[in-house]
Amino acid sequence: MLTNSLQSLDVAHHIHPITNLRRLERQGPIVIDRGQGIYVYDDEGREYIEAMAGLWSVGLGFGEQRLVDAATKQLEKLPYYHVFSQKAHAPSALLAAKLTELAPAGLEHVFFTNSGAEANDSVVKFVWYYNNAIGRPEKKKFLARDGGYHGITVAAGSLTGLQTNQKGFDLPLPFVRHLSRPHFYRAGLPGETEEAFTERLLKELEDTILAEGPETVAAFIGEPVMGAGGVLVPPKGYWAGVQEICRKYDVLVVADEVINGFGRLGTMFGCETLGIEPDILVCSKQITSSYQPLAAVLMKDFIYQAMADASEKLGVFGHGYTTGAHPVSTAVALENLAIIEERDLVARSKELGAYMHAGLAKFADHPHVGEIRGIGLIAAVELVADKATKAKFEPFGKVGLRFFDHAHEHGLIVRGIGDSIAFCPPMIITEAEIDEMLRRFKATLDDITAWIA
Ligand code: PLP
Fold first, then answer.
1. Which CDD domains does the UniProt record give (predicted)?
2. Is the model's pLDDT at 4 over the cut of 80?
3. What element of type H or E holds 222?
4. What is the ipTM of this complex?
């Protein structure tokens, strides 16, 4: 039942992303009105702990005045300019330099987009452009993983390995091959060790490259720790093995750090935690704490040099977005990164992550908790019908959805991914606030347990 005119207007005219549109029509949206710290408030004044930092993204929490001031200052000085056809402006040049300083070694060149999906679409085009430039026009296929999320535009949505983003949209396009999701708890065979599981995944990778023909396989893309697929931490040795095989067949390694980047795992980039040395790195979300839309593609020099030569030959590097490298977004990103460094939030995220995981571990004996996973300030609790057999609830996802809805009543915003409950709180959260977040989680879990029974 819709209770206020804002909800009615929204339902009548606004098409929402990643939403069951008929369910929205029936129930109406929760209208979020304001935010402060880790809290948001709806238009009826109800308080919620934003345990997902919005969409895994508001690293500094809500109401950070320094970001507001940085945006205001830039809006007053130069609210817009583009970087096409040999124009530049200070915030984007400074941010490009800053990102190359923070990123894993060798990523020296940066291209800016407005969103993570645009960035991944750009990666696909850059890799194709690169391989055309160096005379390998056949080397165009991408390897991605089931459960991976890389956005929803046509190319990025093809890299994504989640059916909900593809069903009905004629995706994925045929340039992508999806490999198994690296989730030992669910995909490990009875009696299989974690190491043997890793070997099986690596064999699948190598077999796929050989079956497709290494001369046709251009790149492997993966999130160091998968986010939207359910906060999946890969098994031991996985990334080292992936890189070894990719190097053997001259396949570029692309790290999608859109969620992992800027401290989420307790290191500046997830690549450090997982030991990845990518050829291309994609970042977004916490780059501005999502106060402004911005994403970036970082690449190694050898890719850039081939692209630069090609642009000279073709007359132009014919790729770009009107609002890419936006001066306000890049100014906000510079201030956001300065705050992360000044407050040592990367180290803090590691400490707080350990605190959050210790708190979550107390639920390990609960009869419906199958697996608790994550690294740093990102986690998921997988709820199962039967702990011993790992049997899922029927239908799969029903309990997760119920949990998500019900958590609102306890003043908690989490995400249900299937029947896994994800946490990704702002990195400015305190120990006391983590306690309160887990208290609200427990209250919801108690209600859901009673409902299941
Ligand atoms: N890559 C990853 C790992 C993501 O988690 C997301 C969004 O959640 C994207 C890419 C797409 O970003 P955007 O929603 O800004 O297009």
1. OAT_like (cd00610)
2. no
3. strand 217-222
4. 0.99
